[in-house]
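# step 3/5: fold
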Amino acid sequence: MSGGSDIIGSATSETTSGTGYSAAGLPQILSRDDLIEALGRLLALAQEPRAFLVVGINDLAVTNDLFGFDIGDELIACVERLIAAQLTADDLIGRVASNKFGIVLRAGDSHAMRETAERVLKAVYETRIETSECRLAASISIGGILLPEHAQTPEDAILRGLRALSAAKETREGFVAYQPCSIQDEQRRQNIRIAKDVASALEAGRMRLALQPIVSTTTWEPAFYEALLRMELPNGELVPAGRFVSIAEQLGFVRFLDRRGLELAAELLEQEPDLQLTLNVSGLTCSDPGWLAALRHLARNSRLATRLMVEITETAAIHDLHQFRTFVDALKELGCRVAIDDFGAGYTSFRTLKGIAIDMVKIDGAFVLNLLRDSSDRFFIRAMVELAGSLGMETVAEWVGNEETALLLAEDGVDYLQGFHFGQPAIVAKPNDPGSAFTSETF
C-alpha cells in the first residue's frame, strides 16, 4: 500500500497479463460482472468473513458540467488508482457503476473495514488530481457492509452497500457502516412485490376504476364522479392507488398507469353519455406528449373531452409552472376542464394560478377533517372560497365525513363536496358484465 500523493496524473496504467495487477503494481480493476461473480464465489464458499466497501465520487456531475465528460473520466481514473493504492494484495476492487467502486476486503471485521475506509478517504482528500485541463480536487463517500453477516448474495451486498453509501453522503465523516433494519428490508421487499404486481396488472388488463360521487351543494345530488384507479390482483383483491402510485412514479412507469386510467375513463364516458368524470394524473404526465396524444385520439369522434375534468395536485403544478401552463392550455384546447387537487397542502398562491386557466380548486381534506373542532380551518376555507370565486374558479371540499361538516361547508360557499358521507368509491363493472356500469361493491 502507498499513501496519497500530492499530485496524481491521469495517464492510464497498463495491466500486466495474468497477475491481477497493473504495471504500476496496483490491483486490476474488475468489471461489474466480474466483481459480482467474485462476490458470488466468496459468499458461496463462506470460509471466512469479509468486508465490502462501496465508494462513490461526490459531485461528479459538477465536474462534467464545467469541464466536460472527458475530464470527468480522467478524474474517475485518477480516483480509481488512488483507491487501489490503499489496498492489499488480497483485496479486490471493481466497478459498481461509472463513478462507484466496490472493494472486497480480505479482513472481515468492522475495525479493519473502518480503518481501510478512513485510509482511502484520506488519500483522496489529500491529493490534487492533474487532468489535461487543470488540477482538480475530488471527494468521495464510502458505505461498508460485513459479509456474509449482512448479505448472502452479491445483489444484496451491492444494494445494502449503496444504501450505506447514500447515508455516508449525508455525514461529514464520509463513511457509514450498514446497519440491518428489518423494517427497511421488509419495505424494500414489499416495494419489489408492488412493482411486479403493477407491471403484471398493466400487461394483463387488470386495472379497474372506482367512482366516488362529488355532490353539488345546490342540489345535493352528484354533479360528477372522480375516477380512481384500482389494481386487481390475480386473486381478485383490489388495491387502492395510494399503495402503488408512488412506487410507479419512482420507477418511471406511472405514465403507463395514467394512460390506462385515461383509456378506462374514455370507455366509461362512451358507455354512459350523461356521465361526467374527473381524473387525477401524475405530475410526470404534464410532460408526457403521449398522454395528450392518447386523449386527442380518444376524443376525436365525440365530445368526450368536454365531460372530462383533469386533476393535477398542487405540488405537481408548482414543480414546473411553465410546463404546467402548457399542459393546461393543451387540455383546454381539447375541451377538458382542469382542477387543482389537494389545494392548500403546498405553497401555491392564487396569484400564481391567476394567469392559468384553472376551472376548479379541490380544498385539501386536511382542512376539512377537523373543521368542527378547529375554527382556523374554517377561516382558511372561507378565504379560499372567496379568492377562488373572485377568479372564476369553483371549489370542492374533500374528506367530508358527516352531515354537520357538509352543512358548514355549504354555508361557507363551497360549490361541491366529496367524501365518505356521500359515498365510498364504487367499482365500475367490467365491459362484459351485465347491467349498469356501476356496481354496489365499494372500495
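# step 4/5: annotate
The radius of gyration is 29 Å.
# step 5/5: archive (pending)
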